Amino acid sequence: MTDEIEKMGKSLLRHDHRDGQAVLMYLDPGDAPGIVADLERVAISRGYTKVCARIPAAHARHFVAAGYQLEAAIPHFYGEGDTGCFMTRFFVKEQMLERAPMLRNAVLATTELQPPAPAVTLAEGGTLRLARAADVDRVAALYGEVGVAKSAAVHDPRFLEAALNRGDLFLGVWVAEAPVAICAAHLDAASGSGELAHFAVNPQHRGRGHALLLLQGMAQALSPLGVRLLWSAVRAYAPGINITFARGGYCYGGTLTNSTNIYGTLESVNVWYKALGDDPALAWGSVFPSSPA
């Protein structure tokens, strides 16, 4: 069952039918505070277990008064001084309980010990570039081989073609014109942010720093497009991807409890973010520009 996007006033609400929850993706200031009651009516009428809202901090008090709790925050998400708040209201108490708190804490403790990663060098014979429409079959084949934890049809070339047409970007490491590592970026022009998702690395090419290379490459590719902040929500119980973001200079913003269907089970995800203006490598890149073709 596919997600459904609904306009509530001038705001955008995503219905996640598979997981029985709704996500307020965009809050138009003119819809607050009345939209808080509208969200409750939607949740009760449809039997949702939770509602998540990504909103500016200036409106957080209306949600807190209605029983929402702050789970993650990204400073300057909407611009200078305007924090983005990830608010959640649980309608089923069991979903409020973290399934593996000790494991989550152990993963986060590991990330705190990580030194910043140096610039990753592309191996000889490899190419770092953005995927094109002609590449969707090969990109889909990589996703199909590796598998993606989150529920997304990235193994379907038609899904990838539609994603490219709406402006999503896929950056990959290519060897002999075949992708061996890939990740996606969903751009939000209104906030100047980009959400990174759908990381996949061919098992035969793991351990070579490709995920870090993709993080660095995405920053270099997106900064000239006006993207000033990158963020991602990754599996809270997976050490590798959390360590990658920590070593890539990303900051931990919080944990969204039992928020994402991963291999058929709801799991928590950690929010990581990075302000591109704080990256010295990009400062040098503005003097000596170089971005993936």
Automatic annotation (TrEMBL):
Record-linked PROSITE patterns: GNAT
InterPro entries: Acyl_CoA_acyltransferase, GNAT_dom
CDD domains attached to this UniProt entry: NAT_SF
UniProt GO molecular function: acyltransferase activity, transferring groups other than amino-acyl groups
Domain of life assignment: Bacteria
The N-acetyltransferase domain, residue ranges: 126-278
Family annotation (SUPFAM superfamilies): Acyl-CoA N-acyltransferases (Nat)
Official protein name in the record: N-acetyltransferase domain-containing protein
Organism: Geomonas paludis
